[in-house]
Write a structure and sequence with these properties.
9 strands, binds flavin mononucleotide, alpha+beta, Pnp Oxidase, Chain A, 6 helices, 236 residues
């Protein structure tokens, strides 16, 4: 139906009451990495048919405009949160210029949102190689085919490139292209949001407490973990 063409759509009645959980300071893990793991594992155990590792990654372009897109979290540990992409893509270029990023997850099934503020760094070639090697062949080929974020003339252009790359590597192992690899986002702040009734949601923010000694080590890239974290409740 095209009857609504050009008319504004009023969505004022789109609202939902959140009542699936609560997040109290006394129940929150002392370390936000542990809290993230708790929430992630809880979601995993629901075995939902959704990509729970899909996250929004926001970067700033050369003019300072933010851009958000979805990427898949491929690994996380106390060092940081990893995703893989094309280093020449817009996000790749943005991060190279300005490594401060935001990651966020929205998990509607559990009425939770997590926000991570952090600094992105490239994984080592060896780390990227290791993940590239376990990707399905089709994805490995895709990394060669796609000049991610470039303007291309047509779908046919992509399909032709796919055919070319497939024949180039026929019966051969596919090497990781130099322009493809991972980033690790090292968190500097976390926020955990749990939807509650009457819009009085729970929001806990974790701020790192870092001794001068640790700060120096972090700057020297010898250490990435903070000493401890302060938990603050934010108004919803
Ligand atoms: C569910 C989902 C998962 C995605 N995962 C990735 C990913 O892991 N890496 C990636 O480069 N792009 C991924 N994309 C595509 C990105 O959202 C984006 O279109 C692409 O990376 C180009 O972004 P850019 O031009 O802003 O750099 C995914 C998209 C969706 C919807």
């Amino acid at each position: 139906m095209h009857g609504n063409k050009g008319m504004s759509q009023n969505l004022h009645h789109y609202r939902k009451s959140y009542q699936k959980g609560a997040l109290r300071k006394q129940d929150a893990a002392a370390d936000p990495f542990d809290q993230f793991t708790l929430w992630f594992d809880a979601l995993k155990s629901l075995e939902l048919d959704i990509e729970i590792n899909a996250m929004h990654c926001t970067t700033l372009d050369a003019e300072g405009f933010p851009r958000t897109r979805v990427v898949l979290l491929k690994s996380f540990d106390r060092q940081g949160f990893q995703f893989f992409t094309n280093y020449s893509s817009q996000k790749g270029q943005d991060i190279t210029r300005h490594p401060k990023v935001s990651l966020s997850f929205f998990w509607p099934d559990v009425e939770r949102q997590v926000h991570i503020k952090g600094t992105a760094e490239r994984l080592t070639k060896e780390e990227s190689d290791a993940y590239f090697a376990v990707r399905p062949r089709g994805s490995q080929i895709g990394a060669h085919v796609s000049d991610q974020s470039r303007v291309i003339e047509s779908r046919e252009y992509l399909e032709q490139r796919l055919a070319d790359i497939e024949s180039l590597y026929e019966n051969r192992e596919i090497p990781r292209p130099d322009h493809w690899g991972g980033f690790r986002v090292i968190p500097e702040e976390y926020e955990f949001w749990q939807g509650r009734e009457n819009r009085l949601h729970d929001r806990l923010r974790y701020i790192p407490v870092t001794s001068t000694e640790t700060k120096t080590e972090i700057q020297a890239q010898n250490k990435k973990a903070h000493d401890s974290w302060i938990i603050e409740r934010l108004a919803p």
